[in-house]
Amino acid sequence: MKIDIDKQLEVLKPEKQVLVLNAFAPIVRELNDFGIEYPEIQEMEQTPERSARAKRFRIDFKKVVKKSDDKRKELKEESLQEGRSIQSVHNHILEVTEQMLTEVMDIEQYYENLEKAEQEKLRKERLSELEKYEVDGSGLPLGEMESAIWENFLIGAKSQYEERQRAEKEEADRLAEESRIQDLHVERKESIINCWQFVLEENQNDNFGTWEQIHWDDFVSDLYQSKADYDKEQKQIREDNEKLRAENEKAETKRIADKKRSDNKLKKERESKQKLEDEKAEREETERVEKLKKENAPDKERLVDIVEYIMDCREGIKNKLVCELLLEIEGQIESLIEKM
């Protein structure tokens, strides 16, 4: 172990380094000697002699360390006294110069206030100038601005304002012209709405407000001529259709009358024919029935006898099913007799 304080002294001025080094040099040498002795004690065997030597080492070592602390206090006290003396001198200087500085500051403040008042007045004047050109200069150091810079700034603001005014006027004129053209377009389109069907497809999406008056007049004249021709043609078509309709109605009336007469004639012929056929059929049916009665008279009598026989047999039979069957046969024979 070796103590070296050169590095710690580097922060001090040279004369202070010498002072501190001379004060601590003897103590550092003694401590370094202890640093040489300490490894020897560590290498000794654990004996009472080693313990006694270590105790002596500790006592002597602490004494030297105490010397270092005493020297520190001594130097610190000298430094404190030096600091107090320096502070006293400084306080005296402050006391003497304070009044002078106060008076100087009052003079400076007076002229600063005067200068600020002038700057504020100038700022308001320049702010008013900028307002003429619609510029917000509230955030600009107008009062502190040099005259040359201010003049250039004002010229720029005026130039930009005039440019905006010109652009706004041109835009207003453009919008007014567009509005005039659009209004004229609507007006012209409404004036020909009853002729719109005669407008060519290629012109239907045109902006009529942009047309020259002479062009528009010719266009309208052509439209109304087309409409007049169309109306004349339609009138002739309606007259022709009306004439044709009257002729068709007359022909249809005659056709219906002829058909009605023909239908009545056919109806009478059919009714007369049907009457003759019905009379013939009736005679034939009467003749057939009379003939059939004549031919079936013996069989009819025999069937009547059979019915009477069945009726007699049915009265003596107790079997219900047989009776029902005989009754059914009896009914069928009676039906046949009626047809004969």
Topology, element by element:
Elements: H1 14-43, H2 48-131, H3 147-191, H4 213-316, H5 320-339
Helix pairs in contact: 1-2, 4-5
Could you please describe the fold and organization of this structure?
By secondary structure, this protein is an all-alpha fold. Among the domains are: 108 residues; 52 residues; 46 residues. It contains five helices and no strands. Helix 1 runs antiparallel to helix 2 and helix 4 packs across helix 5. The longest helix has 104 residues. The chain is elongated and about 190 Å long. 1% of the residues are buried. The mean pLDDT is 79.
Largest sheet: none
Percentage of residues in DSSP E strands? under 5%
Helix content: over 70%
Total helical elements: 5
Strands, total number: 0
Structural class: mainly alpha
Query: What does the radius of gyration come to?
Result: 74 Å
- Order of helical and strand elements: HHHHH
- The poorly predicted ranges are none
Shape: elongated
Distance between the termini: 168 Å
> Whole-number average pLDDT?
79
